[in-house]
Amino acid sequence: MNPFKHARNWSTKALPVKDPNFGHPLDTSHGPILYVEDVSVSFDGFKALNNLNLYIDEGELRCIIGPNGAGKTTMMDVITGKTKPDSGSIYFGQQINLRELSEHQIARGGIGRKFQKPTVFEALSVYENLELATAGNKKFWFTLTRELTGEQRDRLDEVLYTIGLTQSRFNSAGNLSHGQKQWLEIGMLLMQSPRVLLVDEPVAGMTGEETERTAELLTSLAGKHSVIVVEHDMAFVRSIARKVTVLHQGSVLAEGSMDQVQSDPKVIEVYLGE
Amino acid sequence: MKLKKLLKTIGVLGASCTLALSSITANAQEDDTIKVGVLHSLSGTMAISETTLKDTMLMLIEEQNKKGGLLGKKLEPVVVDPASNWPLFAEKTRELLAQEKVDAIFGCWTSVSRKSVLPVVEELNGLLFYPVQYEGEESSRNVFYTGAAPNQQAIPAVDYLMNELEVKRWVLAGTDYVYPRTTNKILAAYLKAKGVADEDIMINYTPFGHSDWQNIVSDIKRFGSSGKKTAVVSTINGDANVPFYRELGNQGISAEDIPVVAFSVGEEELSGIDAKPLVGHMAAWNYFMSVDTDENNAFIDQWLAFIGDEDRVTNDPMEAHYIGFNMWVKAVEKAGTTDSDAVIDAIVGVEVPNLTGGTSKMLPNHHITKPVLLGEIQEDGQFLTVWETDGLVAGDAWSDYLEGSKDLKSDWVSLNCGNYNTKTKKCVGATAE
Amino acid sequence: MLTQRLLTSDKGGMLVLGLIALTCIVVPILNLAVPESSPFHVSTFAVTLLGKFLCYALLALALDLIWGYAGILSLGHGAFFALGGYAMGMYLMRQIGDRGKYGDPLLPDFMVFLNWQDLPWYWHGFDMFWFAALMIILVPGILAWVFGWLAFRSRVTGVYFAIITQALTYALMLAFFRNEMGFGGNNGLTDFKDILDFSITADSTRIGLFLASGIALMLAYLACRYIVTSRAGKVIVSIRDAESRTRFSGYQVESYKLWLFVFSAVLAGIAGALYVPQVGIINPGEFSPLNSIELVVWVATGGRGTLYGAIVGAFSVNYGKTVFTTFYPEAWLFPLGLLFVLVTLVLPKGLVGLIGRFKKNKSATNKEEQP
Amino acid sequence: MALLKKSVCLWIALAACLIALPCAYAQPQEPDEFATLVDELATGSLSKRGKTVDAIAATGHERAQAVLHALLQGSLQTTRSTPKQVVIETTNDVYVLAANGESVAAKALGRTKRIPIHNKLRSQIKTLMAQMNLSAVDAGVRQRAVEQMISDGVDSDSIELLQTLQSKESNTDVRDAMTAAIALAQLESSSAETRLTAVKILRGSLYPEVRGPLEAIAKHDSERSIRVEAQRSLDSIDGKLKMFRLGENIFFGLSLGSVLLLSAIGLAITFGVMGVINMAHGELMMIGAYTTWVIQQAFPNHIEYSLFMAIPAAFVVSGLVGIAIERGVIQFLYGRPLETLLATFGISLILQQAARSIFSPLNRAVSLPEWMSGSLQINPAFSITFNRLYILLFGLMVFFALLAVLKKTSLGLKVRAVSQNRPMARAVGVRASWVDAMTFGLGSGVAGIAGVALSQLTNVGPNLGQAYIIDSFMVVVFGGVGNLWGTLVSAMSLGVINKFMEPFAGAVLAKVLILVLLILFIQKKPKGLFPQKGRAAAD
Question: Which single residue of A175, C31, D392, D396 has CA 20 to 30 Å from D9?
């Protein structure tokens, strides 16, 4: 009777970490979940990324720092499919070549991204924002005809609680405070059930208290998800980071714990010198 | 509660909508006037040609009222603006006939506007006087064609070129729509019947408002340089003419080398052009402002006084309205009523003087008799008549040179049919009531 | 459940829908049952006028769906309207049969006129209503699909999309003007006689067409409501407000835009098909880019992103036009032009927004009304 | 209007006067016969006028040429009072008696009427004058006379005349033309040898009249060798013609491109740089065109200079209207390009209707100055029309001037600053609103200038703008928004592509194809040929 019946069952089953769109579980048997190898991107002769190599392990919380123009945003663009690299390879797990996929496929595959400027759908309510982000079948005809399942709704409530917006679930997202918007966006990422979270400057413009809560939120997410945080706020990075990568002129300058990195003479030169 | 309130609002709004509707459809039914509908575009692309005809109608009606009106009543013009929008023509016609209850409509210019109006006029049994030269192939009981049919304009012009100027090669250039297509088809058939070879006929169509004539003119020039006398028969419409003639002039083609005979270029179009590059080119019409007759001089004086502008000109469609209006007036007087059926019966055979010194007559096929004049364009934008037909030419609704229509005949008196097939002896399409 | 979703929190829509329903009931009665002498009689002229407005409203609705909700401004929606109209026109032409001027049983008059020997292949099948009805949906739909697929895939958006849609309708206009195309050139298709064996000039047929337009409009409205209140509708609004965010949420933005565009084009086609038998002519002028721009103005005037605002806009602008062309035939472009300027400057949310502003103090406005 | 026509006559009459002057002092030899004939021009009927003209030419009178020339130019007039006097209007309201060149007071004549002629007479006079002009002082006049003879067909009498003149001719061009004329006539000679020489002489001759007779000889001549030679001559002519036709087509394309460029370039600023979808752009061009007309009306005696006055005037008028539009409407709509579309569409309707109310819905006649008409004859098969040539040059001039304004002036710097980053520009002290107004004014002013150029090509009426608006947008989008060079390249290439498609696709289909190609192109390169670079361009 219902042509979408099959699809529905399939999507509810697929809700957990397994990703539905690649048809098979993600192979992370060698450790890293994300491989960025020898990636180069240039705009009109300017090399935004220059033979960048980066490996993210499953469940890892990685902070990426670097001066302006180091290539942080471009790196995220490349991973999420917004920018196609000139050369190099990007693999998600052992087998999935992200270069061949488009943005929405990558997103469905389990890589979520939070933008530098909080971008939530201001015309919609908090609840609807999360509803939209919910993992599942995102094809036009499906969303046209189906409501959320009970399971999905439960998960939504859970996330609402996690990001602390249960009270304002029916408020318009446009009326939220800056910090709340940031959290909502993180919540939306969570609804996508991603394997990897790319978070661009999550605490920019936040009050101290908000920053603290965000730090808590992100550390709690690590483990279940791999989290990549790009941030300028060194204090914040110090408070959450286990491993830090420093980008400079489109390639990795240094990598290690915060202390290691901070004592690296190359890093000091880049940040203080010249 | 809520629903109740909503229903109430709907009720109120509904009532006000009905009111609004009735304000569009308000029909002041005053019996002491006879209403005359004027259906000419006052805005949009056709305003350029049609506004003048609206003014002409207003003038004619005013004159008639000065003479005491018609059947003892005043004439009242009802002017609407169909805005060069063809569906709007149909809508406005319905408005004129059904709401305003006009007794006759004078209007339309383009073929498509007439085609759009036609079903409405027939449905509501109105009267339409159509004043522009057209492609023929039509005859409606409710329409009177006071402009020229192809045999009243195109064919005599070609005869002149062939006989007087000994033209051997022909360029038939036109805008891509029905009138030029038909005219050119008729002409091509006619020329071939006269022994002109295929390679001596060049047919070219361009879109409306075509403005870049460089290579077409250069083609014409090449076509005309074969040593045989060449002429261009132009059915190029409206705005495309200025760039066409300018290009001709600039590429050094003068009227002596390759004359252009146009069927859509009249005094009014010329008044918007610097006529210098056109001097010597020709046009075929049933009327020229330069024709020196008493009727015409009176008409011109009247027009200039009415419009209050010494520089305005008169043209052929204006004369057609003049004839059409006078015919209608005469027919109404003859019938003693403005009732459509009575007027349709009365008008056939009515004769009124035209402005070129003759008397035009309404024929049973609802076309009229007209003289055909060939004029050369002069520097002042007027025409110098170089040739005219001996007598008046009767308008022919169905061309004798087209395959589909040569057996058709229109006669609303004896046959009561607009498209009677003389071979099968049947009224085709059975549109007659 | 569904009715609740579609109609509650849509007071304006309910009001408009109710009014249309009321008109659909009252007008036929006043036209057919009330004698002509009565002041309550609604003339056939008014019926065709209203029928035309209903078609325009449907067209405006189609545009509002993609412009108001997905933020895709099409300046070529008139093309889909005209294509639907042509499909219907071709059916009506074939219905004339041998009652044409030349009495040819197969060929329409204009083809006889141009000495065509055979019916062009694309005219076959149009003698059957079901085929024509299918084409009314398929032709605009497929064109929109192909065009949309090309455009959205390469992420042509905003102003660029507006301009290439304009190019599309302009190209179609020029093409249909050509007599060789076999669609009657500049004169288009006209002089229709019957539709589904009913005489097209009969009052009852007019009422039937009027009702069909009204019902089509109401159904289309509900369908549009269904879309915009569904999850897909929210995705569509998200695309309008933050396209790349939606993309990174895992939605294939192109596919959403494409299906919505196709649906909107089909609605426009249906509007055109209903329009043609009521006005009695279809010609390439309907493809004119100016028509499409005017359509955008109806929606803007009514208030975009509300659906019913589009209907209000289509009715009010066209009503105004009818009044102005009758009462101020010489100068009606002045108020019309002024209206466009004022609406964009003073009423960014259109007439509907204006009413909303008055009511603001009374009740909290519902969220969906805000574009 | 009347004044305008008079001033047109003025120039023609002036030319006539120059020719007449040398003869004015000579005493007529047989005053009676000549004067009678001249009078007959006025009194006789149109059909008899041809004979009279022949007779006048036959007198060999010194004034014959002047009278015929005046008749041809329409400056030969007659009084309405009897006895009719025939006079030549040399300049505005200055008359001389046709028969003897004595000047007469305009007042004494009363109202005068032009003596009308028609085409037959015109070509008759031209032929007659060609023979007289063969020995004119000016080489150009002689050249035209020979060409006139070629197109009229040279008869055996003229061959001898030409042969004598040719031996004396000093100008090579004229001599070549004479050679061709003689050879053309000799093609019909009964002597095979003469024909053969003639065929050889005509090898590569580009006179259009040559091809037909040569073709006939190549097919039908009794001598085979002549047929072969004729075919070779024909081939050589065709080869040349092909080349020139290609050249001609390229010029046509560039010329169309220049029109597109002119109409799009203002838009490249208002739309490309400022992001305003200005639907009233066409109407701003219309205003420019009407300005030209008004200028010509105001200075009816200076038509030749009217364009030089009209260009700055149109720039100022359209620019001011543009500034008014910007201040009145658009300034409230920045960042909302689609809204600017609606508002400016409304403005375009108002402007159109305003033109209709002020100037009437009829087209207005804008005169072509003498120097804009005619063509630059490179050879008999290839000529470039002056108006197109000047407009092409003018379009390029406007383009480079605009480029210089944007690149070199402080206004240009500010414009670019504001268009790239409004708040930053404001922060460094640029008065953004002033810059907006000026930029829009600049774009509108350029549209006005384009209108002046268009007035020389097409109708000046309320619908002028509508015809160009869509094309203009296409050009800007195709070239890449915000890139003036892109606009130039796109306008020129669209023009040329169009002209190369027209011969086999026809004018309508060519345009449709161009539009389809454009649509497809934008799918491939959504930002046009030369996309604007950098982060600001991304959305």
Answer: D392
At D12, which helix (H) or strand (E)?
A: helix D2-20
- The region, left, alpha or beta by phi > 0 then psi within -120 to 50, assigned to residue B166 is left
DSSP-based three-state secondary structure for D117 = coil
Burial (0-12, 13-18, 19+ Cβ within 10 Å), B294: exposed
- Let me know: does A63 contact A245? Beta carbons within 8 Å: yes
Residue contact D350–C343, C-beta within 8 A: no
Q: Which chains touch B (3 or more CB pairs under 8 A)?
A: C, D
The CA distance from B423 to the nearest CA of chain C, in Å, is 13
Asked whether the beta carbons of residue D252 and residue B255 sit closer than 8 angstroms, the reply is no
* pLDDT tier at D262, thresholds 50, 70, 90: very high
Q: Could you give the CA distance from residue D190 to residue D212 in angstroms, rounded to a whole number?
A: 18
Q: How many CB atoms lie within 10 A of CB A24?
A: 10
Enumerate residues 6+ apart whose C-beta is below 8 A from C353: C303, C309, C347, C369
Name every chain C residue with its beta carbon within 8 A of the beta carbon of A124: 234, 237-238
B33 neighbors B75 (Cβ within 8 angstroms): yes
Give the DSSP H or E segment for C94: helix C77-96
Residue type, B335: A
Number of H helices, E strands in chain D: 21, 7
The ranges assigned to domains in chain C are 2-369
pLDDT tens-digit map of A163-200: 888 888 888 888 888 888 888 888 888 888 888 989 88
Chain A closest-CA separation from residue C260 CA (Å): 9
**Statement: residue D29 has pLDDT above 60:** no
Whether D336 and D325 have beta carbons less than 8 Å apart is answered as no
Phi, psi of D333 (to 5 degrees): -120, 15
Nearest to C340 among D275, D343, D519 (CB): D343
CA distances from A15 to A19, A110, A235 (A): 8, 11, 36
* For testing contact with chain D, the best of B225, B270, B313 (most D CBs within 10 A): B225
**C248 vs A103: CB contact, 8 Å cut-off?**
yes
Q: Is the complex ipTM higher than 0.90?
A: no
- Core vs surface per residue D122-139: b (16+ CB within 10 A) or e: bbbbbbbbbbbbbebeee
**Pick from C159, C170, C338: which is nearest to D515 by CB?**
C170
Whether D512 sits inside 8 A of C162 (CB atoms) is no
Domains and CATH numbers, chain A: 5-22+29-272 (3.40.50.300)
**Per-residue tokens: A139:** 């094809």
B297 touches chain D (CB under 8 A): no
Do C325 and B92 count as a contact with CB atoms less than 8 A apart? yes
CA distance linking residue C85 with residue C279, whole number of Å: 11
Q: Do C281 and B94 lie within an 8 Å CB cutoff?
A: no
Residue C114 is classified by DSSP as: T
Do C325 and B83 lie within an 8 Å CB cutoff?
yes
| Cβ neighbours of B243 in D, within 8 Å | 457-459
Measured between beta carbons, the chain B residues lying within 8 angstroms of C104 are 404
Answer whether C249 sits within 8 Å of A133, measured CB to CB. Answer: yes
Question: What residues in D contact B215, CB-CB < 8 Å?
Answer: 248-249, 252, 499, 502-503
CA distances, A159 to each of A56, A126, A176, A179, A180 (Å): 25, 11, 17, 16, 13
Nearest CA among D274, D487, D279 for reference residue D398:
D487
Q: Residue C367 pLDDT > 70, yes or no?
A: no
The DSSP element (H or E) to which C151 belongs, if any, is: helix C129-153
Query: Which domains, from first to last, does chain B contain?
Result: 154-262 (3.40.50.2300)
Chain A partners within 8 Å of C255 (Cβ): 139-140
